[in-house]
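Hi Y.,

Following your request, here is the sequence exactly as I used it, all 84 residues.
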Amino acid sequence: VYAESAQSKDNTAVHRYNCVQRICHQNTLKNIPLIIISTLIIGLNYPYIAAAASFFWVLTRVGYTIGYSSGVPRRQVTLWRDVY
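Below is the corresponding structure, written out as tokens. Let me know if you'd prefer a different format.
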């Protein structure tokens, strides 16, 4: 459930909620199946590497969520922004 864009422009709390809901939450849900499957497959042969990679993913998701939940565009920087 998102707020309308007019509401988002007028209220910063609504804008922050939209950032968290749309970008962070939905993006994480979209990536979790790939992370779980790849962790399970890699973990069959390399369990420590799979555990370390999964832990790193969790740490980066926390940073990603903090950046996007701020609602400040300059804090919403990703590593891939310079590539495209």
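The chain has a mean pLDDT of 77.

Thanks again,
Q.
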